[in-house]
UniProtKB/TrEMBL annotation:
Listed cofactors: Mg(2+)
Protein's recorded name: Demethylmenaquinone methyltransferase-like protein
Positions annotated to bind substrate: 155-158, 177
The keyword Magnesium appears for this protein: yes
Entry superkingdom: Bacteria
UniProt cross-references to SUPFAM superfamilies, sorted A to Z: RraA-like
Residues that, per the record, bind Mg(2+): 178
Coiled coil regions, renumbered to chain: none
Organism: Haliscomenobacter hydrossis (strain ATCC 27775 / DSM 1100 / LMG 10767 / O)
Sorted UniProt keywords: Magnesium, Metal-binding, Methyltransferase, Signal, Transferase
Amino acid sequence: MVKLSKLVLIVLAFLPCLAVNGQQITPTKEQIIALTPEWKGERLPDGRPKTNDKFIERLKKVSLEEAWGYLRNKGYHNQFEGDWMMLRAEQVMVGRAVTAQYMPLRPEWDKIIKAAGEKEGRIGGTNSWPIDVLKTGDVYVADGYGKIVDGTLIGDNLGNSIYAKSKNGVIFYGSVRDIEGLEAIQGFNAWIKGADPSYIQQMMLASINNPIRIGRATVLPGDVVLAKKGGIVFIPPHLLDDLVLNSEFVALRDAFGHQRLREGKFTPGQIDRQWTDDIKKDFLSWLDAHPEKLPMTRAELDAYMKERTW
């Protein structure tokens, strides 16, 4: 019976058109929890994993290659999407995903969606509904199925609202309008597939905070976003802390190795293979001598090194 109940929750979360009392725009908290069972920590009020803000901030310094390589080693091969148009290529964006699914307009389904939204107290156009749920640190991630002309999910008015609520930006597998107005919003950023002066037409919102596809990637509500010039990695929440610590540790190893190579103390062959006990000892002494180089606390580093095979 317990297994059956969990299965029902998962089915409802994946298929938003199936709800006990009719159309459901957003999964319940219990359904989102069922979608993200690997997360064992605190939850946001809507059920998304409440990943640690300090690790999200430290994620900004992690390269796309390091994040992508780590996830592939963990068996997650479909978490990257590249080839984006960016509002500010030099500005990194990180945060927790709020997802939205858009589809080509189907009139009778669109009527059901709007009626359900009205019953839930939602106001305005349906493309504003995902914005209403944003909180500080969220990233609005939408599948607009690559539509550019008449596929503009926001303009500068909605862009201002997004930044006011999230202090972040958007990732749209689709397009935006009013690009100059969006650029004028200080701090706002966007990864999009294009821009067009047209208004949104013949599109409908299908769901909020359900799993979506963004190009090559599958994105779940609460995934942690790492968006940079080279593309975007969507990180399962339960892997965030270890991914960041792993990247920071590799960066420390590299800094130490590069210094010792410049000094001629070790050869490339010694540094590029499994370290000997002498090199490990020298590395630990180097860490003690350079505490300013640590991006984590020493306690975090020591705990991490206990679990790591060098």
